[in-house]
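re: ur question from earlier - yeah i can do the single chain one, its not a big deal. heres the input i used so u can compare w yours
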Amino acid sequence: MGTAQTNAIDVAAYIICARNRQGERISQLKLHKLLYYAQAWHLAFESRPLFDDEIQAWAHGPVVKAVYRKYRSRRWSSVPIPAEVPHLPKQARQNIDIVLENYGDLSAYELEKLSHLYPPWIESRKGIPDGQSSTAVITHASILSCYSQF
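and the output i got, formated as tokens:
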């Protein structure tokens, strides 16, 4: 599997800006689920990660810890809109835009529930009770295996 050309912080900023253009201020919860799906579909389309930051299987769904740290103080409020849209490679932008077209109008809760239905989440949380904290990693291999089947 190849290496990523960007990082989760920049992808998150791109997603925030894109949803803002659609008139939505998104919560951190929704942002993390959209990051997860951006990574999943980029892996399926390109056979390499969109970003190298690991995704952890937290109680309320997939979370990228670096992005969580950046917006931690926002808690359940909407995340701030970046001053400028980060420059991402063209293919990355196109893949993220496809994800936002397909998942962007779902609520944070709907995205959380959806993320819990598939093997990457289920396998990474194996043996961890619902609602319990976890730093279990959702691997690129697990995500690729699942989403490349669609």
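The first helix runs from residue 8 to 21. not sure if urs matches, ping me
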